[in-house]
Design a protein that fits this description.
Blueprint lengths: L1 E8 L5 E8 L11 E2 L5 E2 L1 H44 L6 H28 L40 H34 L4 H24 L5 H69 L5 H28 L2 E3 L12 E3 L15 H32 L1
Antiparallel strand pairs: 1-2, 3-4, 5-6
Keywords: Signal
Length: 398
Amino acid sequence: MWKFLLSMPTPMFMTAIASITVPVPTPAGKLVLLVNANLSVTGPLMHTWVVRVGEKRLKEEGMEAFNKFDQEISGVDAALRLLGSTMQLFGSSVGVLHAIYRLRKSLMRLQFHVRENAARLYEGFIEPSEKREIQDIKPDMKANGHINPPRSWKAPAVPKNSNEAKEKRYQDIHGSMDQVGDNLERFMERINEISGFHDELINQTFAAFSGELKHRAAVLRRLKYRPNTAFKERINKLSVVFGQHLEGMREALKSFQKNSIPVIQLSQERRGLGLQGLSAVATFFSGINATAIQYQLNEPPTLLRSAVNGLLITSLACSAASAVSAQVVYFCTYISPWLKDAQVTITIICTGRISKFSSPSKYTPGFIAHILQYTPLIYLCVHLRFHVHGWIISLHIQ
């Protein structure tokens, strides 16, 4: 037996001196370990150990990337859920609520595909999704704020060919990416309509993620990857890029919730207070006219007094019309086409200033918007004119 001092790499890839005893080679035999001039160990055992260490490290990095993606997409879902709860109190919010619902559903389905991919790639380390059917992946709360009732349990249909089912499941991730990209663009359009201004951070982060998803989906579809281990590793590597975009989206939603929501709320409250103030003034003048008419009716009827009564009654009608029209602008309905995206049958929505079903100005014809805006003021001006003329004639009679 010969004894050698060998230089061997440690798990931290540092150099250490070890004393290893190897058998003396025979003329017909081979060395179990070969010792070179630099006293470094080479051979099949060291090669196997290095490969195992590398595979373990790659597996840890892959699982860390998936966990980061899963955490970020759950954070974005929570931020969207909070935004939807806040938007229910605002005007023109029904489109945003539906866009949030569709975006949340598509993100949850993308999360389902990525989790299923990671569960098969790192079997035993990552748990698969609790729901086994992609159709069951959807938010618990609907766009209108109602909770989805639990489905009656039904045994899933067993596919005839399990390989075809697996292949179909992983091919659906392309469509899931495209769906998320489309819903991101729809969300940006709706949120810009309700806010009245373009939030730069929201538009930049959401547009970047939408473009990334559509590009990756187009590449995967064009190259026609087979659902093998290389494909699964590729999808898991994409979760690193997706996680970075999701982190930016989460921060953008947090900033929008903190800074932009109060601005939208203040703007809509000011518009509502203006209409309520106009309605209050018209109601006050209606009371004055009604009191004046009561006094005039007790006087003996003459031609001038009849003219005064006619002017005061017309003035009373105009003041009442002003008050009512202000309330109609505040809460009124008309047929609008912008709920086609919501896939609903009834498209009667409100054009009120603070109703969540109010139509954004983009979808309201210009002449209708001007009529609704200036009708209460026109009625009030006509009321004042008839009221002043009636009092002038009444004073002339006296």
